[in-house]
Amino acid sequence: MTASFSASSVPASPASVPQAGSPVAARRALPDAPLLVAARGGTPSRTPVWFMRQAGRSLPEYRSVREGVPMLQSCFDPALLAEITMQPVRRHGVDAAILFSDIVVPLYAAGLAIDIVPGTGPVVAHPVRSAADVDAVPELEAEQVRPITDGIGLLLRELGQTPLIGFAGAPFTLASYLIEGGPSRNHEHTKALMHAEPELWHRLASRLADVTATFLTAQLEAGVDAVQLFDSWAGALSERDYREFVLPHSTRVLSAVAEYDVPRIHFGVGTGELLPAMREAGADVVGVDWRVPLDEAARRLRASGESEPVVQGNLDPALLMASWPVIEAEVRRIAAEGREAAGHVFNLGHGVLPETDPEVLTRVVELVHSL
Q1: For the whole model, what pTM was predicted?
Q2: Nearest to residue 103, comparing CAs of 279, 232, 9, 227?
Q3: Alpha helices for 128-197 (secondary structure H)
Q4: Is residue 53 annotated as a catalytic residue, yes or no?
Q5: pLDDT per residue over 16-41, tens digit each?
Q6: Phi, psi (5° rounding) for residue 266?
Q7: Are 298 and 256 spatial neighbours (Cβ–Cβ below 8 Å)?
Q8: Which Gene Ontology cellular component annotation is one that this UniProt entry carries (predicted)?
């Protein structure tokens, strides 16, 4: 049995979170930041590069500061959150920081009994599979993520001209964790509920869209410069199911933050067949995993929007274990394919693996910048 954290155990922080729709005093002007220029389809001074899971287990300094601190507790410690987020910026010279957090953080903050178990991932104490379970899923209030927005305030004072990306999990992926009770290979309970009780599914997904939108809005009000919506498990779905059961709710989330006029990145794993639909949800930048070449991704995406597509990706993270000549050739290939889109943000096709040598990541950043 795993212990469950309670959001009420998170220490309160003295600062307050601005309410949605209020002026964003913390918004920075970063007109020349390569990430933001590329994300808007402009011509940056260099190809921007950052890595999903760049702040994490591949860094010895991360393991040092996290020693003895549970994952969720570290996400709600403003100073620790800021330190972990800054580590890859200092070490690698990446063109963006991404807020150190986890997909289930807003669910935990709202009061759900959920834990992140080492070696397993998020584990839900009581899976959501009935109407009563759905009705019991709490709403999220901005005050419940106040320690996180306090951490953003600390980051903005240290980042200088480096943009900060906020992030959240998309409704489908959050729902999958809640319904399955944890990570799943086949998502069988999720798909069964989707098709057998579509009204109940949409009720749950709508509630989770509200949670996600509130979490992203709180980050934007605190001053993040871009946001990424992770739909980690959407690749398990057919395009038909995605459009019927997922697209309306992801669209609601991305529409809810459109007024902030910051780049909105949308990423999923194994979503090659879903790329046009994911762009239709409201993405300014579509993340592509390593299974689809970026030039092919750009071709598919042109059919789903009036403007030219911007892509992010897509080096296979496993190849970072190869020899440098292999890595260099892959980086050069991906950079060349990315030029077929209106903009390209260099990244991995998924997150940095824990066994990755940090020096290799630094060399990749230097190579991308040299191109």
Answers
A1: 0.91
A2: 232
A3: 131-136, 146-158, 171-180, 188-196
A4: yes
A5: 333 444 445 457 889 999 999 999 99
A6: -125, 125
A7: no
A8: cytosol
